[in-house]
Amino acid sequence: MKTLLVIKSSLFNGQGQSSRLADAFVERWRGNNPDGRVLCRDLALEPVPHLSAETFRGFQADPVERTPEQHAAVAVSDSLIAELKSADELVLGLPMYNFSVPSTLKAWMDHVARAGVTFRYTESGPEGLVGDKPMYVFAARGGQYAGTDMDTQTPLIRMFFGMLGISDIRFTYAEGLALGDEQAEQARAQAVEAIERLAA
User: Fold this and answer.
1) 14 pLDDT more than 90
2) Which residues of 147-156 are buried (b: 16+ CB within 10 A; e: fewer)?
3) Rounded distance, CA 182 to CA 198, Å?
4) DSSP H or E stretch at residue 158
5) Among candidate residues 116, 126, 140, the one with its CA nearest the CA of residue 190
6) Distance between CA atoms of residues 130 and 109, nearest Å
């Protein structure tokens, strides 16, 4: 039985453009995997606390020496990592806010990136411990940035998840959503066509 982890980072929950694209893919994935399991982590409904000094110290401390607050913070991180490791495939709904990823997603990333747990340092650089798996990113943007220097998201996502050991990352872009109804409808239609090809 396959497990699909869906991470939504839109401020608008399931109503966000990136969330709707992610849902469209999940619907087709369920059709191809009737016995599959879908885990959904909606970062607007269940925000992850931003990384603090106390939490970071807890990551580094021996478990027997952690304070109650550090134990609680590490438990949040452990649960997120367990979800990630349990998944056979990943979906990320990714809106662009002010040329970057949502701060809620960055908080999730900060809790998932733990040396010795999801990656380790080697002489040749970080080595991922999560294991490679297909990852589908549905990026919704008001402007048009793919393939330009203004697209800060694509290299960040590739670099971060690559550090964890995930390199099979496939992007679907819906761009120009704030450039008029005609452009937005065309972008959504093209993204849905891409989803159909991914799910085929």
Assistant:
1) no
2) eeeebebbee
3) 25
4) helix 153-164
5) 140
6) 13
Relative to beta strand 119-122, strand 125-128 is antiparallel
Per residue in 41-50, pLDDT (tens digit) is 999 999 999 9
Tokens coding 185: 């409808």
- Assess contact for 116 and 81: CB atoms under 8 A: no
Please give the torsion angle defined by the CA atoms of residues 99, 100, 102 and 107, in that order, rounded to the nearest 10 degrees: -160
Could you read off the pLDDT of 74-122 as tens digits, one per residue?
Answer: 999 999 999 999 999 999 999 999 999 999 999 999 999 999 999 999 9
Q: Which segments of the chain are extended strands (E)? A: 3-8, 37-42, 89-95, 119-122, 125-128, 135-140, 169-174
- Pairing relationship of beta strands 89-95 and 3-8 according to DSSP bridges: parallel
- pLDDT (average), residues 151-180: 97
Binding residues for FMN: 10, 96-99
Cα 8 to its chain centre, rounded Å, is: 7
Rounded to whole angstroms, the Cα distance separating 162 from 183 reads 33
Q: The tokens 């990656």 sit on which residue?
A: 119
Residue 16 token pair: 């966000």
Domains of the chain: 3-199 (3.40.50.360)
The residue written with tokens 């990592």 in the block is 81
Amino acid at position 17, single letter:
Q
Residues making up the binding site: 10, 96-99
